[in-house]
Task: structure prediction
Amino acid sequence: MRKPFQGVLNIIRFNWHFYALSIVLVFIGVLLASYLGSSAQRILYFFCMLISGSIILSLVTSLYVYDLSGLYNLKWIDQQNTETVVININAGFDETSALLTKKFKNAELIALDFYDPKKHTEISIRRARKAYPPFPKTKQIDTSNLSMADNFADKIFVILSAHEIRNEVERLLFFKELKRVLKPTGEIYLTEHLRDVANFMAYNVGFFHFYSKNSWMEVVKGAGLEVKMIVHLTPFISTFILEKNGSTS
Result:
């Protein structure tokens, strides 16, 4: 069970270096301002306020998205009660497999982890892996080989993890693997922040870590998949429900 404010507290915990650096910069800026003339002071104070405001806005947004929006109650996921195999894929930090197990009680849930420290170098992921043990029986995989049979899974979830695949070729191969493993009538749930206006307003330059909707659509099309539906749980997160072209291939 998730604890109150777990989402935003984890963000601070795993990215503390960023917040520490920002606090130091604001402190230095305020200190330097006391030695400058009024015009220079106003400019420096403005930048200090800009940094402080950006941090506060990003944390408030994260609190809303990860703790208040209902993202982790999974009510936005369509459940048919006929699923027999559900796959959940993470990038080294798994917050959803335990929740999906409870939602799909009659299905076998398989947790896969594609984290490779040589390819996926985010320090926040390394900290998260130290803080949280993997879901029981999680299988380590390569993005180009899920080690699963063809037409195997009813649903595949890739929740807030696919953007960690920074290489375009690797990302396309990964989605082709998802298609191969998916049953003809199955669905892939791709949940991501997007590189758009809303996320820029919330996370400033941090939105460059995300990909645009067009980028995802290119990957989806290139992998031979199509979008069945888009779910906007918040203005900051989108879920693309994908299926095989024509739902028969």
The helical segments are 6-14, 16-33, 38-68, 97-103, 123-131, 168-181, 197-203, 213-222. The chain has eight helices and seven strands. The mean pLDDT is 93.
